[in-house]
Amino acid sequence: MGYEPVTVREAAQIEVLLFVGLAFVGGLLTIYWGFQTYQFGRLIRDTPPEPVQSVAMGRTEVRGELTPATRVYDQPFTEGQCIYGEFKLREYKDTPDDDNDKQWKTVQKDSFSAPFYVDDGTGQMLVEPNEDTLYEISDTHSVEIAVDGNQPAPDPIQEFLGRGPPDARNNPDSDDGGIRERLASVVGRFDFLDGKQESDELDIDDQGGDPDAVDMDERETDADSGGVERIHRSELGSTGRTGNKRRYIQMVLPVDDEGYVFGGATRPDPNEAVPCDEDILIRSDPSTDEFIISDKGEFSLASTYRNRSAMYIAAAVIVTTLVLALLVQILVTGPLYGIEEALP
User: Which of 73, 204, 212, 220 is the most buried (most CB within 10 A)?
Assistant: First the structure.
């Protein structure tokens, strides 16, 4: 007994059915993720921050002044210092497909962080971020600076580009023979503030200057014991020169500013190397696997998650409803929109 071969029509119907079915499942998963986000927002809202001196082991929320523990960074594009920063450099460039067409391309992006203390007046506690830490930065500490091709950039950006004030350029670690030979180049871990029709793929070629991005967590030299190492913005940036229009985007957690931390208080292993030899510190919360650092208050942050969950759920419900209607139509009458007529 042989098998009848599958016709082109039947194969096309199966492909459409599978695609619609996967879209429906994706919509349901997005709804689930929206509810999870809402529940997490409620958890933040209903769990008041603890005084540092009263923090117990396990999940905790603390709020206080952020002070550096081992390292402090210059803010990439503005005056001031920070314990965490993200930056992105976008350039208005010719596209390789059409000489008369230009679009915004990301030529450099990166993020950097270091352990820091949260001081709420009752005491201070060390916070040790990791690669899974989620940073929620408000508009207050987010900035975008647009510079025309024939316009000089502000002094902090000039310093970032390696053409800045003498004190930064003469830093022994910031020249070509210093830190740039010792550190690995990396691509940043964030993506934000994108506009419509703007490519965000890292564009590494000779049109965009040197897209060298330095991972400060890979430095071979540690901070001096008892002191805080300062990372100059000239060590963060690129030495590339260009006459194209550029956008410089940054998000930072400034030093000595108020901050909020959601994580888990823990004791490190006896043989584990811990910054400043602290016996208790905050890392990821083991019960939720969440680790959030923000300049927002807990109520503002909870509202952010509630609004985000509403957006997820609303979009997923609309898409799932449309996909469900399409799925029913396919099961009852076959494919829609001319697919039937196009099949042989």
Answer: 73
Quote the CA–CA distance of 49 and 44 in Å, as a whole number: 9
Whole-model pTM: value is 0.68
Q: Would 285 be classed as within a structural domain?
A: yes
Question: 338: domain range?
Answer: 8-42+309-342
Euclidean distance between CA atoms 156 and 79, whole angstroms: 7
Alpha-carbon span 164 to 235, nearest angstrom? 11
Check whether residue 188 and residue 123 sit in a common domain.
yes
Q: pLDDT tens for residues 191-217?
A: 333 333 444 555 544 333 333 334 444
Give the whole-angstrom CA distance, residue 284 versus residue 262.
Answer: 8
CA count, 13 A, side-chain hemisphere, 309: 17
DSSP single-letter state for residue 67: E
pLDDT score at 335: 56
If DSSP codes are grouped into helix, strand and coil, which group holds residue 12? helix
User: What's the structural domain count of the chain?
Assistant: 2
Q: Are residues 122 and 37 in the same domain?
A: no
Three-state SS for 206? coil
| pLDDT tens per residue, range 104-129 | 888 888 899 999 999 999 999 999 99
Distance CA 299, CA 138 (A): 13
Summarize the chain as % helix, strand, coil (round to 5).
Answer: 30, 25, 45
Q: How far apart are the first and last CA of the chain?
A: 27
| 301 in a structural domain | no
Is residue 304 in some structural domain?
no
